[in-house]
Design a protein that fits this description.
Blueprint lengths: L13 E5 L3 E5 L5 E7 L1 E6 L2 E6 L2 E5 L5 E5 L7 E6 L15 E3 L3 E3 L5 H13 L6 H15 L5 E3 L4 H16 L6 H8 L3 H11 L4 H19 L4 H7 L5 H12 L3 H7 L1
Helix pairs in contact: 1-2, 3-5, 4-5
Length: about 260
């Protein structure tokens, strides 16, 4: 599974492939691209929903809320994800600063052939510390070939969308700490009722469901990539007890965390 990044300070490009991607609305401070190689996916980008089919490329600009839900089985699905980072070599081109894409989803075949080539090359080179100059060159090619085909508009977003982005940023930076609607209300100066309504009507999920989704995805990474005890992982992920962690993990994953670690 591809797990989107939560950090807002990462500089380097990251690229990976996977067979499933389910994640609630979130955002990044750098561009993100996802290419459907096989299968289909439902995605929300900003205020609109899209169904992506094989061959579709989605481009998400910084600070645009987006969510993913794979529609096909793992055996039928292949997804490539690139998060560009925001160092000078891979950052958003100046022409796109303060803009939004009116058509963020298009077939990759509708772009210059170099786009598909550069995208694949980045997947091969990303993560290789010796390939930094090559990665930078491919990114420049990718953006240079994309720009002529990108339709943009001024990023004039309503207040509700701005608050949704603020909430996502706040929660994804603090989900491992105790969080409540009351604490968000105090910190952001917005009524808890209004915050709850933003999560329900704009983000299409409950506040605690969203927080738990972040915590469970973080816990899954720790289960697979570390040797921490289950109790330690529960605490590191923001849960107050192992019993609560086990119950919510089972709700999300259909099995307890110990079985998930063993199976994977």
């Amino acid at each position: 599974m591809i797990v989107p990044f939560y950090e807002y300070g990462h500089n380097q490009l990251s690229a990976s492939s996977g067979h499933q991607l389910h994640f609630p609305l979130h955002l990044h401070n750098c561009p993100e691209m996802i290419l459907i190689r096989a299968g289909s996916m439902r995605a929300q980008i900003g205020d609109r929903e899209y169904t992506l089919q094989a061959g579709d490329l989605a481009i998400i600009l910084p600070n645009i809320t987006h969510s993913y839900h794979t529609l096909t089985s793992p055996e039928e699905t292949l997804l490539d994800l690139i998060i560009c980072g925001h160092n000078p070599q891979s950052a958003l081109p100046r022409q796109l600063s303060g803009r939004i894409l009116t058509e963020p989803v298009k077939p990759i075949a509708s772009y210059h052939p170099d786009v598909a080539y550069a995208f694949s090359a980045l997947l091969s080179e990303a993560g290789n510390t010796d390939s930094a100059p090559i990665v930078s060159a491919y990114l420049q090619i990718l953006w240079h070939r994309l720009l002529p085909s990108l339709d943009t508009a001024d990023a004039m977003t309503p207040t509700t969308s701005n608050l949704a982005a603020t909430l996502i940023t706040y929660v994804t930076e603090r989900f491992r700490s105790p969080l409540s609607l009351d604490s968000l209300s105090r910190e952001l100066g917005v009524s808890r009722f209004h915050i709850s309504r933003i999560f329900t009507q704009v983000l299409h999920t409950g506040f605690y469901e969203y927080v738990n989704a972040l915590r469970i995805n973080y816990a899954k990474e720790l289960l697979l990539d570390s040797e921490y005890k289950i109790l330690d992982i529960a605490e590191m992920s923001g849960f107050q007890s192992q019993q609560t962690f086990n119950r919510i993990f089972r709700d999300f994953c259909g099995m307890p965390p110990s079985a998930y670690r063993k199976q994977h």
